[in-house]
Amino acid sequence: PTSSITCHWGRFEDIELPAQHFDLVYHDAFSPDVNPECWTPDALTKIVRSMAPGASLVTYTVQGDVRRALAACGLEVERLPGPTNGKKQVLRARKSTVASNT
Prior knowledge:
- There is one protein chain.
- By secondary structure, the chain is of the alpha+beta class.
- The chain has helices at 41-50, 64-72; strands at 22-26, 51-59, 76-81, 89-94.
- A four-stranded mixed β-sheet has the order 1-2-4-3.
- Helix 1 (41-50) links the parallel strand 1 (22-26) and strand 2.
- The longest helix has 10 residues, at 41-50.
């Protein structure tokens, strides 16, 4: 099997993401307080649409608003222990293995 990594740089609002394409999304957009445009319902919906069925999104942001917004996009959201000597928790959100429009 082949693997590849795609990094998108630029203003989040301007980035076009392919539908149901990514198996893993590392959303390192700092907190909603720092970069609120990356955490809006529209932004999260854009990310979720780009995720293939069964894909995961991981982020260091574990705020309740973010967890609820990802769940509202249809993802199964859970807090996990963070890395050693780092944040206490990280967030993982998984998309259903059944294809959908989101």
